[in-house]
Specification:
This protein is mostly helical. Helices cover about 65% and strands about 5% of the residues. It has one domain (about 50-185): Orthogonal Bundle (Arc Repressor Mutant, subunit A), CATH 1.10.10.10. A hairpin with a 7-residue loop joins strand 2 (about 125-130) and strand 3 (about 140-145). Helix 3 runs antiparallel to helix 7 (about 145-165), helix 4 packs across helix 7 and helix 5 packs across helix 6 (about 110-125). The protein is elongated, with a radius of gyration of 22 Å.
């Protein structure tokens, strides 16, 4: 008996769907990375250069995407690091506070780097520091009202920007890409 879903959004693409997406892609000839691979295949036919196609394109794409994301952060007066701190505090939920060490873990930076980011945000009036109520030796960093407005506006614009950047891919391609990247990343984070 077939399974019926309330929404097609819940369907995860199969391997066959992924191959269909790839086979439907227009052939535009070799890109920059493809041309480099062709040169290596000519010069070193004894090597399988196929990993270079994945890594070269991921590297080039990551650079381009980072540039595109940072433009939106700058529109809100933030760098990527400051946005990460504000977003971590906002995701924490009310009262939007975390200890500096927790912030460092949530933003995947050293405590020293987190301190520098926090200092800049305190100076901008977007976060504040206070002594913990339950342990006067501990400190908490929290969003100010201005910080909450900035991060909410920046996050709304950030998500719209991410949708724009994904626009060349259809829903099935996005789902397939997310599934592949999740699997690959999971192999390193286990």
């Amino acid at each position: 008996m077939p399974i019926h879903f309330a929404s097609t959004e819940a369907i995860i693409p199969s391997v066959e769907d992924i191959f269909q997406v790839v086979s439907d892609a227009p052939d535009r000839g070799p890109d920059h990375v493809g041309r480099i691979q062709e040169q290596w295949r000519r010069e070193r036919p004894d090597l399988d250069t196929s990993p270079q196609g994945v890594f070269g394109r991921l590297h080039r794409l990551a650079d381009r995407l980072r540039e595109e994301l940072e433009v939106e952060f700058r529109r809100h007066g933030l760098g990527e690091g400051e946005f990460d701190v504000l977003a971590a505090l906002r995701r924490a939920g009310a009262p939007y506070e975390l200890a500096p060490g927790e912030l460092a873990r949530h933003t995947m930076v050293t405590t020293g780097a987190a301190t520098k980011r926090i200092d800049r945000l305190v100076a901008a009036g977007l976060v504040s520091r206070r002594v913990r109520d339950d342990d006067h030796r501990g400190r908490l960093v929290g969003l100010t009202e201005a910080g909450r407005r900035v991060v909410d506006d920046a996050f709304t614009a950030h998500i719209a920007n991410e949708h724009r950047l994904l626009a060349p891919l259809n829903r099935m391609e996005r789902q397939a890409l997310e599934r592949i990247l999740t699997k690959w990343l999971g192999a390193f984070e286990e």
